[in-house]
Amino acid sequence: MIYNVSMKIQHLMENEQAVQVLQNTLPGLLKMVQGNPQALTLSVEQLIRYSRVPQADMLLGKLDAALQELNTPENAISPSEAKQIAFFREIWQQEQQLPPKEKNHHQDAIYPGEPWLDTKGERIQAHGGAVYYENGTYYWYGENKTYTDGKNGIWTWGLKVYASQDLCNWDDFGYLIPPVLDDPNCALFPTKRVDRPHILKCPKTGKYVCWIKLSGPEAAFTIWQADNLLGPYEMIENLYNPGGHKAGDFDMVADRETGKGYIYFDADHKSMLCMSLTEDYLHADAESANSYPNMTPPFTREAPALFEAKGRKYMITSGRSGYTPNQSEYAQAENWTDVFVSTGDPHVGDDTLSSFNSQISQVFKVPGKEDLYIAIADRWMPDHLLDRDGALAVRRTIGSKYMPDRFQATAEDHAYLNARPDLERANTRIADYVWLPVHFVNEQICIPWHDTWQLSDYEDSK
Question: Long-range contacts for 160-167 (Cβ within 8 Å, ≥24 apart)?
Answer without folding.
Answer: 160/125, 160/126, 161/126, 161/230, 162/118, 162/124, 162/126, 163/137, 163/138, 163/139, 164/137, 164/138, 164/140, 165/136, 165/137, 165/138, 166/455, 167/110, 167/131, 167/138, 167/366, 167/374, 167/455
